[in-house]
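Quick one: structure for this chain?
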Amino acid sequence: MATSVKQALGDLNKERFVALLGKLIGESKYVQNNPPELIPEEDRVVKHVLDSLLPFSTTTGGGPLVINHVTYKPNRGNLVVEYPGTQPGKVLSFVGMHMDVVTANPADWDFDPFSLSIDGDKLRGRGTTDCLGHVALVAELMRQLGETKPQLKSTVVAVFIASEENSSIPGVGVDALVKDGLLDKLKHGPLFWIDTADKQPCVGTGGMIPWKLKVTGKLFHSGLAHKAINPLELAMEALKEIQLRFYKDFPPHPKEQIYGFATPSTMKPTQWSYPGGGINQIPAECTVSGDVRLTPFYRLSICFDEASSGVACNLESRGFQVLCKATEEIVGHVKPYSITGTLPLIRDLQDEGFDVQTSGYGLMATYHAKNEYCLLTDMCQGYGVFASIISQLED
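Got it. Here's what it folds into:
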């Protein structure tokens, strides 16, 4: 059975994949997510995915794919695509391929961010790595299943989602799908969140807590410093004490080495502001802002506005085992890693009872960056990893 599955899925159809990706990147200008100025219209991406998959659907093509287009806000659809297996309750899923992107300023780029360009192995444009490249990749996987119709015990489900890049408008994407119970069956098997990078399992992420420290002093001429109270100096002294207490309460955790975190939990300033004035003027106040990045082995005991918790994937699960074996088989080596960047949606899924594992085949170096690109060879390997996962779970 495993051999026949691999034969049916074959290798990634590069020409078809690049053609679909070109259509998706052509919509990237209209799926930038930065409310309230930019509200993405993910249905523009949905249309192209449907054009690829509907010929193999139960409704219009006489094929096996069961397709559900679920929309909670106008023009902001999600797409759930199912290839039915023969064994009830046996399922695996690929989730998280989001159809919105972060903003791009064409003046800052060396090429047009809103159209696909090809430079050797590089596929260039906003969304190639994060995450329209993965949308096209998993769409091709589901199309191949629909076209070749291998007999699988497992039901394979792909969930293309809206609204990942900005959570200021809830109830649009995967959170709403979970709330409505539309993904409940996915709890019966591994869920692979396809939205990281560098072809290796990402087994841990960090939580994030934004903070702000406002300090009030007394404005006066810097030549008469004895008549002023310097808020900048007060802020530095206060922040030093706060950081010392933070690192005492949240020291490096032993599990951070097991999960491959590059750094332990951190608390750091990232912004400094004051009302302005001359160089010879001590200001009346200042504000220091920053964030806490907390590894998932420390839980938030109180609620903070805009805070999110980290994730530690289950390293004992079957999903993790098959992902590692597939990665070693296709990529040539496996080295799981963790980052203190945040993926709040997957923590929510984990808390709801899903066995979440994460991977991705773009490039971490180009995530949210100008001149974004991915590599076609990496995407080909990603397709091979997916095929290997399906084959292993059939055994």
